[in-house]
Amino acid sequence: MAKCYPIFGSEDAADLFNPDEMLDLFLRCTVDAICIINMENRFIRINQIYSRIFGYTEEDVIGRRYEELPIPDHLDDIIVQVKNGQNFPNLITQSYHRDGHMVDIAVSYSPLRNSSGEIIAILGIYRDITKEISMERELKRTRELYKLITENASDLIKVYSKDYKIVYASPSHEKVTGYTPEQLLGLHVCDVIQSEEQDTLKSMARKLLETGESQLIQITMKTKDNKVLYFETTVSPVYNEKMEADSYVTVSRNITDRVENDAALRNLDRLSIIGQLAAGVAHEIRNPLTSLKGFSKLLKSATPIEKQSEYLAIISEELDRIDMIVNEFMSLAKPQANQFERGNLISILDSTVNVLRPQAMLDNVQVSINYPKDYPKEDHFDLLCSPNQLKQVFVNILKNAIESMPKGGNVTISIRKLKNKRVVITFKDEGPGIESELLKCLGTPFYTTKDKGIGLGLTVSNKIVQEHNGMMKIESQQGEGTTVNIELEYI
């Protein structure tokens, strides 16, 4: 056998050391709770950790039978088997505290033998694992809750890896898109969105990496039967312990009905504008037509050759004017494009004024645009936009300004640069203004202060401005006219 070395100095000192003192030292220094029960089921020793875990002091338990304390039902059988020499290591169970609440513990029961190998007592070693068990229960509850949410939510929930491959897809995908979660696993994000959406996705990914904040985007996806659906998607990064984004969670909501309703409202508003502008445009076209008819008759008569070229020049000029008016009018009537493109703010404003100039002339209203001092030398105010949609916004606002002055007046359009590549377009009229109570209601669908209005102009306009990452603000006081400020981002 291996040679034994004494713990406390020499062998003589070890022989003189009291075994009870050794046991006391062990019970005091161990991090586990320990109790010793004799063969008559009575407590003979406990340590301070036992008192701390269960609330009983030595005076409470020494000499008492363990059955006198509240104990788990299974303990009697275990004690009987331990007395027969069996060990029960690392049991995960619960026991009662002195005040009655349950304590989660890991416990080991084993027989305590003397030097002859005879079982003389039962040793119980306890460790309080309430905190760990509580964390496991909370984790399990959280997982079950997340599972319940993801399996029953109507929104589409996906988890992407760092290389943008799907590692989880909620069951709702099958109901909405026709694809089962298993069919989506492993696919790249570009496999599940429309190809024309990839530029939007790249722009969103850049902002996500730069800011670390969740991003909201609108994308389209095809279902299994090739139907195109619109989704509003929130993309959020998931960080690891090093605060590095190693996965992404997306929550997508089907907004196809909302997009279609928005399109219907915009179309209704556009048709209303076209109907109201028709009389003004017809009046504007009638003037050059009168000139055309007159000079055409002159050409038929015997006129000098040198006069014919002059008449033809006038006819050509009038035809160009008619062509411009009709083109501007038709551009407003075109279906709205969903894709943004590069457009010039000044050109869009000029085009808007050309469309509404006939109506302004009929109402004796003068429309003027104040360009920045350094235009066009430095700033061209190019926007990433839908020009037709912005034109619809400007037409709505300018038309409201003109109609607010039936006896004539001035409408001033001004352009002012802000910091961070922002520009403010201001429309100011000399109308009677709007009451403060009515001002709060502006923009509410189908609310209008005009006899022939349909109440969609400002609602649609505000929606379009928001989609262009802009803001619209209306200021008005009675007797001082109305000012509409539109803030947009230029490139």
Notes on the protein architecture:
By secondary structure, the chain is of the alpha+beta class. The chain folds into 3 domains: 15-133, Beta-Lactamase; 153-254, Beta-Lactamase (2-Layer Sandwich); 259-489, Heat Shock Protein 90 (2-Layer Sandwich), CATH 3.30.565.10. Helices cover 42% and strands 26% of the residues. It has 15 helices and 17 strands. It has a 5-stranded antiparallel beta sheet. The protein has a 5-stranded antiparallel beta sheet with strand order 7-6-10-9-8, with helices on both faces. Helix 10 runs antiparallel to helix 11 (305-333), helix 12 packs parallel to helix 13 and helix 13 runs antiparallel to helix 15. The longest helix is centred in the middle third of the chain and has 45 residues, at 256-300. It is rod-shaped. The relative contact order is 0.06. Residues 1-5 have low confidence and may be disordered.
Give start-end ranges of low-pLDDT stretches. Answer: 1-5
Quickly give the structural class.
alpha+beta
The strands making up the biggest β-sheet line up spatially as 2-1-5-4-3
Approximately how much beta-strand content do the residues carry? 25-35%
Approximate shape:
rod-shaped
Average pLDDT metric: 81
CATH architecture of the largest domain: 2-Layer Sandwich
Structure summary, number of beta strands:
17
Q: In whole angstroms, how far apart are the ends? A: 87 Å
Q: Output the number of helix runs.
A: 15
CATH superfamily of the largest domain: Histidine kinase-like ATPase, C-terminal domain
Q: At the first level of CATH, what is the class of the largest domain?
A: Alpha Beta
The oligomeric state is single chain
Helix proportion: 40-55%
**What is CATH's topology name of the largest domain?**
Heat Shock Protein 90
Tell me the major beta sheet: 5 strands, antiparallel
| Number of self-contained structural domains | 3
